[in-house]
Every structure is written in C-alpha cells, then in structure tokens.
Design goal:
This protein is mainly alpha-helical and 80 residues long. It contains four helices and no strands. The radius of gyration is 14 Å and the shape is elongated.
Length: 80
C-alpha cells in the first residue's frame, strides 16, 4: 500500500460519515440519495485494504459536496 492510499481512504470515509451526519441521513437514506445500493455505500466506507473496497468516483464526490452546499445554503436563509 502506498502512503497516499491510506490518507485517501481516511479522507473518503471521513467525508462520507461527515456528510451523513450533517444531512441527518441514515446509511440507507444516503445511499438512496446517491443512487447506489446500501452495499455500494458500505464498500466506499470499507478500509482500503478490504477486498470489496471501492474508491469514490469523482461525480459522487461532487454530488455529496453539492448536497452539503445546498444544506448550508438552506440553513443560511433560516431565521435563528
């Protein structure tokens, strides 16, 4: 394993876990929003050394970032 691979995995897993928390979504809900199966999401959350691990494709990274941006924009327009 290259040193960058471990860092990438940690960032990927942390990013997805953070997004689910910020969006208040279960894994099932989050997978549905991403257009993938629960099994697909779980593969993205596996350690990179796992045989079923999959890298997150760039379009999915962008979709999750957009979902988070929309969530933040929605909060900004709400009275406190």
């Amino acid at each position: 394993m290259k040193s960058g691979e471990r860092t990438q995995f940690m960032a990927q897993q942390a990013f997805l876990e953070h997004a689910m928390q910020q969006l208040s979504m279960s894994r099932e809900q989050f997978a549905a929003q991403l257009g993938t199966s629960l099994k697909g999401l779980e593969r993205w959350l596996l350690p990179c050394s796992a045989s079923d691990y999959h890298d997150l494709d760039e379009p999915v990274w962008r979709l999750v970032r957009e979902m988070l941006r929309n969530r933040c924009a929605g909060r900004a327009g709400q009275p406190q």
